[in-house]
Amino acid sequence: MSYQIEYIGRKIKELSSGVFKTLKTPFGEKNLYTLLVNQLGSLQLSEVNLFIHLGDFFISQDDKNKNKLLAFVDEFGMKLINSMAPLDQSINFIYLTRCSILDVLEREFREKRISVDTFFDAMKILEYMYQHISKTLLNRYNEELSFTKFALDESNEDLQITLRELADLQKALNEATIFSTSDRDDRITYVNDRFCNLYKYTREELIGEKHEILSSNFHPPSFFNKLWETLEKGEVWKGEILNQAKDGTKYWLDTIIVPFVDLNGEHYRHISFQYDITEKKETEEILRKTEKLSMIGELAAGIAHEIRNPLTTIRGFVQLLTESGNGQYYANTIIDEIERINFIVSEFMVFAKPHTIYFSDCNLKTILGSVIKFLEPEALLKNVIIESEFPSEEVVVSGEKNQLKQVFLNIIKNSMEALPFGGKIYVSIEKNDDNILITIEDNGVGMGEEQVKKLGEPFFTTKQDGNGLGLMVSYKIIQNHKGTINVKSEQNHGTTFNISFKNPTK
């Protein structure tokens, strides 16, 4: 009978060759090999030598072959695990191999190549070995599952920490920056609350739109071309951008744009971090103008000193001429003009060094009325009509009358010169609980945005024979009176000067 068991062992070993591929399953016509290929996926069946090891054990039932078989099963279990085969598929594989061996036993018994006793002895050996095989395979899966569970527990804890850190980071970004994300076509995919609050758009209005919606038209196309070239290279872009909100307000933003790139190095998304530096830019502009004014102040001090000396001498001799009784009329005219020059020189001293200005109550209606009356003859010659609208009550501010008169004189004369073919100038005073507003508006040639920005700078002028000092002096005077000047202008649509003072009665 032992030779028949050895015979069965050799038949089992044949299953590892092509015979195995022709065996039918107990579930239908589909052969066992195809089923195993479908179940085990990428696992190479040429490495599956279970039949060889089982056949060797049948031929020689000793501990050596038994241990070799179980070692193979343990190693095979690791391969199944690494191939991502689930436990139920692995058990099913063991079951199908057992079925194929039973099929061999049945065929050999029916063809009477083995006896009944051999059949049952072979069944006992088979059951004994498959119990060990199943136990070894289950132990391997249990060990791996225990290790995986431990690793998952640790990973889960790390993941919780990471998610918490990401939440903290997101909160910090939302609190500290004007934050947005965009796709590769620059269409907005997310904005935080600070972004919406700055630009005055709702989140729904922004999502899906390109950043062009925020353009102030300040930067040339080449500026954005260089920006996109940087992002397409996968590099971070840093710079300052002037954007415009929905209500037209413009903001300077210190901007950092970080691109995301895929495995091919192609940019597919970017995030933007922005900080509002509008106030900083305005401060820098004020400092720049202050430096220019400081230089012109030193120049003005020198000019004023040099002019006043000869003026004093001329005035003295004119007074002697008056006292002698000769040329009384001409002397009075000369003295008036000398006083006027002396006053203009005094205005230059506004920029020289701080000095005491004696303020008193100034009636703005009276001052503006006298300036308009003084300029009306010149306006009529230029076909310019000056209209005024003043409130019925007195409008009084604390200031220096001559300085305020000089400001209004400069601005209205500039308006007249902006009307080369005639036109209208409208002058008004408005008073409310908080402010007093003087408006001087013309329908002349107007100015561009860049020209308006430079108004008040030393030596900047839009006139051919101008020197820019008139408006520079005017801006400084209004500043000393704790007022503000705002200018709105559009080319070929006129200019409006708004001069505002705090209401002293407030």
Structure classification: alpha+beta
Order of SSEs: HHHHHHHEEHHHEEEHHEHEEHEEHHEE
Average pLDDT confidence is: 77
Query: Residue share in helices?
Result: 55-70%
Number of helices: 16
What is the terminal separation in angstroms?
123 Å
Contiguous low-pLDDT stretches (5 residues minimum) are: 23-32, 41-47
- Which term fits the overall shape? rod-shaped
- CA radius of gyration is 49 Å
* Strand line-up in the sheet with most strands: 2-1-5-4-3
The biggest sheet amounts to: 5 strands, antiparallel
Oligomer: single chain
Total beta strands: 12
- Beta-strand proportion: 15-25%
Provide a concise account of the structure shown.
By secondary structure, this protein is an alpha+beta fold. The chain has 16 helices and 12 strands. A 5-stranded antiparallel beta sheet has the order 2-1-5-4-3, with helices on both faces. A 5-stranded mixed beta sheet has the order 7-9-10-12-11, covered by helices on one side.
